[in-house]
Amino acid sequence: MQRYIGNPAMRNFLGLSRGEDGRFLVQRSKEDFKALFTQFLKDVRDGKISSRAYTDDVIEYAKDLVASVGVGDDFCDKYDLADAFDEVEEDVSEEEESDEDEESDDNERIRPRTMIGRNADVEHALVQVKNQKLEALYASCCDLSLSRHTPLITVGFWSILEALASLHARGDAKFQDYFGKDRLRSLGFTDKRERDDVWEALQNISRKGNATKHSPRAAHFDGSQLANDVDVIAPFLKAVCDEISTRP
Question: What is the pTM of this model?
Fold first, then answer.
């Protein structure tokens, strides 16, 4: 546990810092810190983290922790760590009392996603394409706060899709036209329901992205819908990247 808390990147993701008097301070809301640290304690208890982890492993765990819990990059005024621990300890104790109470508490904690979070398969496929723009755009769009940056993230994914269409076509291409249902079928989406879902999500991003980019007033602010659209097209993004990176 010390290896993780002692890592600067892990402390940064948790919102932990040390004041001039040596006290630990928290710069995340009590709700977000409680969610993050409670999950961390669960992972420690369940043996999901290793005391022999390397620095890179700790950093990857910290990124995955933030993404899995669903908190964004929102920070607040610093407050004493002891104030946050009161809530964390109470939450962990209540959880251990009974499985039924745990299930009920988890349902009460359900919150809208505050960030999209990275999909490991998509991220790996993008690396294989060897395109710095796509890697950087994807990382930024997935790590930004949905509650604050939905219009920007929408335009970011619109740009990713436009770039992938041109790379796949080996020339200029508009993704909303290029990635039609026949193209989706050729990419392996032979199931009609799945193909229709992907196509509809692509159309959503196309419509909302165009409005956000070109309208003087209209923009996309529904972060939950955008997150769902990105989840739906994740297998599609991987399939397109795989074809681009493996063809002669």
Answer: 0.60
